[in-house]
Design brief:
CATH architecture: 3-Layer(aba) Sandwich
Number of domains: 1
Number of helices: 3
Strand content: 15-25%
CATH class: Alpha Beta
Shape: globular
């Protein structure tokens, strides 16, 4: 699979969190500022369908996920669902420029279908999903975020847990709500921090887990720190200055201009084996 733009970095749980807080923000290299969208309207686009869950089920689960992060009174970030796309590549293509179809924020299922190299799951089988975020290393400005679902090793379900006929395997809304947290700039809390295991952003989810569908107080605190209601600029989690940048991510007649970009991969862990298919 081709990755576009920037230098690949291995994501690690950030070392800082406020003393009584579980939330952690994704941070730029060199102890720089936290990453965030500089606009308050972020759109996610479904690409294709899953093996067990069809487009209707995916849209419903994605709607639950973005709604969880949008309806918090102390923040005014709006995460919405855009039109479906056929795009499958993740990462930011600065040759195409901001706002191009190539740089839509996508949610794509990887099924390892034979003969389709773009459908291959390229990450550890123990990851239920992986979100790739691309940002300006100077300012922390997010320019792209894409979610890949590991439909190779995990069986996703999208039924109502209150329905007695529903058998929850790996709940799609549960997983997507966690991944949307990465899309907006949040990382995994340290597992020994207060409230970490109850947080939507906790790094793992067992089969049957649906608790991540609903944000914990620390998830909301992280959201509201990054996107405080009424503020024209994003918040900053680490108390450092957010430098200005003259970088452009647009394709124009004089050529494309881009700041140094960093790509960070952040995932939700599970125990694979609920669904194993032969890898192509």
């Amino acid at each position: 699979m081709t990755r576009r733009g920037g230098v690949a970095l291995t994501a690690a749980v950030c070392a800082w969190a406020a003393p009584a807080m579980a939330y952690v923000c994704t941070r730029t290299p060199g102890l720089g500022p936290s990453v965030a969208w500089f606009q308050r309207d972020v759109q996610l686009h479904r690409s294709g369908r899953g093996a067990e869950v069809d487009e209707v089920g995916i849209d419903a689960a994605l709607g639950q996920a973005v709604g969880a992060w949008t309806g918090v009174p102390c923040a005014d970030l709006v995460v919405g669902i855009g039109t479906p796309t056929t795009e499958q590549l993740v990462g930011f293509d600065w040759h195409a420029g901001s706002g191009s179809p190539e740089n839509e924020n996508i949610v794509v299922f990887r099924n390892d279908r034979s003969g389709d190299p773009l459908d291959a799951w390229m990450h550890t089988l123990g990851a239920i999903a992986i979100t790739t975020v691309t940002f300006d290393t100077t300012t922390g400005k997010l320019v792209d975020a894409d979610i890949e679902m590991n439909d190779t090793a995990f069986e996703f379900t999208a039924c109502d847990p209150e329905d007695p006929t529903c058998f929850v395997s790996f709940d799609l809304a549960n997983t997507l709500t966690h991944e949307v947290g990465h899309v907006i700039g949040l990382d995994h809390p340290p597992p020994d921090s207060a409230g970490a295991t109850e947080a939507t952003m906790f790094a793992s989810a067992p089969r049957g887990d649906t608790a991540k569908r609903t944000l914990a107080a620390d998830d909301e605190d992280g959201l509201c720190t990054l996107y405080p209601a009424g503020s024209p600029v994003p918040g900053e989690c680490y108390g450092v200055g957010r430098p200005t940048s003259t970088a452009r991510f647009e394709q124009g007649p004089c050529g494309a201009h881009a700041a140094p970009l960093a790509v960070v991969l952040i995932g939700l862990a599970g125990v694979p084996g609920a669904r194993r298919r032969r890898r192509s």
